[in-house]
């Protein structure tokens, strides 16, 4: 989204208030609007506008239609680099002045335009009265509900109050006194930010926004949707950045993603997420170890102490597994009610370690989990103490070549778990050498 404006007097019009909204166009047709757009064009609801307006050209006077068509085609091709003011647009007996700013997006895998329209009728009237065009432009930005910053090489030149409030600064003056705003960009993103700035100044204006995380002045971290573009500021090129605070949306998306991938009780991966994680080892034909773990006599725990205590036992085993698998670049998942599964790549090293003994790496990990879990003290009713145990089946290593080899790895590991249960529980059972040959074939 781009705009080229001379903004020399905006700070004198900070009290300007405007209606603004968004309209989406595809193939010159209006395919969506918000309620504000409907009100701007004299409709009670957005549905009423959509039902009565097909082509966008019916919303504007005839003498603008040619230029609007040209701007539409340029914007779709990503060549439009400035906003446009349309004055004296007749709407229900009134004449409006509108400021238009277009952003190219994809709708149903086809290019479309998302156009921001701001009702600047009062600004144009003030300009005509006072012939102070610069005042109009600064008023437009300073009254925007979106945060706006203009900088040159990250030295702030202009900032509006909305930006100050979003970023937790004390005042406009505090921001303008800074030598550089690069400090609010996380260190890992600063190189990319500088490259993006240089690219924009070179004329390669992005046709899309990006979501970034910034360190705010008050120490908090927020996610912002940013639109940055080149403008002319007092005769020289500068970067205008328009920001929207999307922190709540990002946090919600992260929470929903986490819930979709993790088991609610233990916060380890669910079965579906485990299979997604295994796609990379399958693609790369990685040599993997597998553990299946099942709490012994778990039904008795539930029957004797109740499901709340049973849940605590399950969580404790999950945390014990995560503790011992954390450093192995592996994954832990809840496979069933009281059953867990672990995958991690076979360790490749030229130095002897505690895991490079006659016992396999996977066996050492399994025995450590088994030992720590059986010594844990649980509390039942009336603070009755009890202990639990876990049986573990292990396949030390198997090269994952196909989904069939993965299924075989899980099956032979389940066989090892069955042997651990049959041999008295509270123990580790490892597949004999060559037990996973079928997986690797």
UniProtKB/TrEMBL annotation:
Swiss-Prot/TrEMBL catalytic activity: 2 GTP = 3',3'-c-di-GMP + 2 diphosphate
EC code(s) of this entry: 2.7.7.65
InterPro entries: Diguanylate_Cyclase, GGDEF_dom, Nucleotide_cyclase, PAS, PAS-like_dom_sf, Rev_trsase/Diguanyl_cyclase
Nucleotidyltransferase in keyword set: yes
GO molecular function: diguanylate cyclase activity
Record bears the keyword Nucleotidyltransferase: yes
Record PROSITE patterns: GGDEF
Keywords noted in UniProt: Nucleotidyltransferase, Transferase
Start and end residues of each GGDEF domain: 286-433
NCBIfam families named in the record: GGDEF, sensory_box
Protein name: diguanylate cyclase
């Amino acid at each position: 989204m781009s705009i080229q404006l001379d903004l020399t007097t905006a700070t004198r019009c900070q009290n300007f208030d405007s209606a603004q909204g968004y309209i989406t166009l595809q193939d010159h047709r209006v395919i969506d609007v918000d309620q504000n757009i409907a009100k701007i064009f004299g409709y009670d609801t957005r549905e009423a506008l959509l039902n009565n307006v097909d082509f966008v050209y019916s919303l504007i006077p005839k003498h603008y239609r040619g230029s609007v068509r040209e701007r539409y085609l340029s914007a779709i091709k990503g060549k439009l680099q400035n906003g446009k003011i349309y004055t004296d647009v007749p709407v229900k007996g009134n004449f409006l002045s509108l400021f238009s700013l277009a952003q190219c997006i994809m709708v149903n895998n086809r290019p479309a335009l998302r156009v921001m329209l701001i009702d600047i009728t009062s600004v144009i009237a003030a300009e005509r009265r006072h012939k102070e065009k610069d005042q109009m432009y600064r008023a437009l930005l300073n009254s925007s509900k979106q945060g706006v910053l203009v900088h040159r090489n990250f030295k702030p030149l202009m900032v509006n109050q909305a930006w100050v409030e979003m970023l937790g600064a004390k005042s406009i003056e505090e921001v303008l006194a800074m030598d550089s705003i690069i400090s609010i960009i996380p260190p890992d993103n600063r190189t990319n930010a500088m490259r993006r700035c240089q690219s924009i100044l070179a004329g390669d204006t992005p046709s899309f926004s990006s979501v970034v995380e910034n360190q705010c002045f008050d120490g908090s971290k927020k996610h912002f949707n940013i639109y940055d573009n080149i403008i002319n500021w007092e005769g020289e090129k500068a970067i205008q950045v328009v920001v929207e605070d999307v922190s709540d949306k990002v946090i919600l998306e992260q929470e929903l993603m986490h819930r979709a991938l993790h088991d609610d009780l233990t916060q380890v991966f669910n079965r579906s997420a485990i299979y997604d994680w295994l796609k990379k080892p399958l693609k790369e034909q990685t040599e993997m170890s597998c553990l299946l773990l099942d709490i012994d006599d778990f039904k008795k725990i539930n029957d004797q102490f109740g499901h709340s205590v049973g849940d605590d036992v399950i969580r404790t085993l999950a945390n014990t597994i995560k503790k011992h698998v954390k450093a192995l670049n592996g994954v832990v998942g809840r496979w069933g009610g009281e059953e867990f599964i672990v995958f991690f790549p076979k360790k490749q090293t030229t130095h002897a370690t505690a895991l490079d003994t006659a016992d396999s790496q996977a066996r050492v990990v399994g025995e450590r989990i088994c030992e720590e879990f059986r010594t844990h003290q649980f509390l039942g009713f009336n603070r009755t103490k009890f202990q639990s145990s876990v049986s573990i089946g292990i396949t030390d290593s198997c090269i994952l070549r196909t989904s069939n080899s993965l299924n075989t790895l899980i099956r032979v590991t389940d066989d090892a778990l069955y042997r651990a249960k049959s041999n008295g529980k509270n123990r580790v059972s490892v597949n004999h050498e060559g037990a996973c040959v079928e997986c690797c074939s």
